[in-house]
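Limitations

Structures in this collection are predictions, not experimental determinations, and the ligand pose is part of the prediction. Treat each record accordingly. The example that follows, with acetyl coenzyme *A as the small molecule, is included so readers can see exactly what is and is not provided: the inputs are given verbatim, and the output is the predicted complex.
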Amino acid sequence: GLDIAPLLKQTGKVTLDTGFVNTASCTSAITYIDGDAGILRYRGYPIEQLAEKSSFLEVSHLLIHGELPTEAELSRFTEDVKEHTLIREEMRRFFDGFPRDAHPMAVLSSGVSALSTFYQDSLDPFDKDQVEISTVRLLAKLPTIAAHSYKNSIGHPTLYPDNSLSYVENFQRMTFGLPTTPYEVNPLHSRVLDMLLVLHADHEQNCSTSTVRLVGSSQANMFASVSAGVNALFGPLHGGANEAVLSMLSKIDAEGGDVGSFVSAVKDKSAGTRLMGFGHRVYRNYDPRATIVKKAAREVIDAMPNPDPMLDIALQLEEIALSDDYFVERKLYPNVDFYTGLIYRAMGFPPRMFTVLFALGRLPGWIAQWREMINDPATKIGRPRQVYTGATERDYVALSDR
Ligand code: ACO
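Predicted complex:
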């Protein structure tokens, strides 16, 4: 409703595009999305093929280095990552300083930011070797930091990484294992968790990735830029949605499971509630990742001794919403987060860890995008313009006269 014509007179010609709905901030060769057709590809490879056939470290290599690795490259990349899974002892103590009830995303971003203090030998964005070692350190240490943030929140001792395990198994053990008992890997959970990390690995210029690029455009180092990305992901309209979906499903369940009334209430916008896990800025069709996650949720939940009734609530919610004009007209479909929370819950993760899992998955995308931005000669410091709506010139009034 704002009449911007007079404002533009004083600003000069600029494009007002709040939320960057139609403004590209860069060119990129990493991820392709066709939101109308529901297509997602990393470096040209369809997400469906990568989810089914690939692994998280292989996809990380693809995103970061541009190509699927050969067997030798993958083995070297995996060994490099394993070599750096430990965090420094001073950093382990760092976690004791946070309150027990701190949100693990807040601890995660602080942990990533703190890497700039421990690895001052690798902060130069224009030194190729330093960028390589920062890349490996981040990929290796994020699961360790994430598991520590969780252990700290429940008052349990932290576990050192076990590099005889795979990337995902090692994270599961550091999260759920106990120092006194051997950890038994659940192969279904490891496979599905690895696949979920693949699905989250990049999504072009979303809020957190744009944040990583914007911070990095000032030539801030990779750790500083990625910690900003973690903070952007923290919000409930972005990564925090998976946690919000589960609160929503629990609320529906606690109030008697009347899904139809809940959907009707969401349509009344004055109530200010949204159907969490529904809608997407780019997808105006079924999110291709949600199709894959829905199938995996069924598989993991069916394998539980007491299958989670919340899955049925979610399935009903989807069915009702997709046949309701409100959602049809606005092209609102389930996004990747609609079913992920149910899987994480079945694996034993508490809701506060859900967004942390998203961050673990998104990490290679943030790194790949940061590296692409730093190496692009067209990169300039990000500096959006504005349309000023404040007071015109006025004279200072002395304190005694106000
Ligand atoms: N429930 C109900 N109505 C919705 C929803 C929803 N989840 N999402 C959008 N709408 C409505 C809006 O009220 C608006 O209606 P109007 O045209 O009558 O005003 C219309 O659909 C368009 O919505 P916008 O807010 O303009 O869409 P935008 O692209 O800005 O927002 C977003 C996208 C933030 C994802 C939104 O759909 C949302 O809030 N969804 C719920 C949170 C969520 O699931 N986030 C995860 C996103 S995916 C990710 O980060 C991995």
